[in-house]
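Figure 2 data, in text form.
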Amino acid sequence: MEIEFRYTQPRDVDTLYDFFEAYDAEPAESNNNFYFGWEIESIQKDAVEYYQNCWLGAFDGDKIIGICWIGEAEDEYDRNGDPAVIQSDVYVLPNRRGQGVGTELIKTALELAKEEYGGRDVHITLLDDDLVPFYERLHFVFETPGLGRLYYE
């Protein structure tokens, strides 16, 4: 089945909840000790209604197998002084990792950012230095040496 990449919508609340539940059920070390712990009401309010057109989902049929967040920053600015675009929170179910889902999520997010926000910088903040080569392959450049904010050129 072909994977569809699109923004989550109100009709996706249940599948988002299932994704977060499956992600949280994995051993903490396989998820960088990250735990969502969201209740379905929070997903309805925060992940779907408030952040509509921010959560990008990778859908395999009617199931979400990966998500990432992309949106305009409120307190970060690009090199031109415009609000930066933030790409963050890329999560892929452990059993779907290594299949290109995360890479395609980021590529799709960058395409959408270009369409929606023009040529603004896309910033990310890395918390795991193991991800540096992954983002460098996608043409992100370190703003400062070492871990920290990257931007897409």
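Caption note: The longest helix spans residues 101-117.
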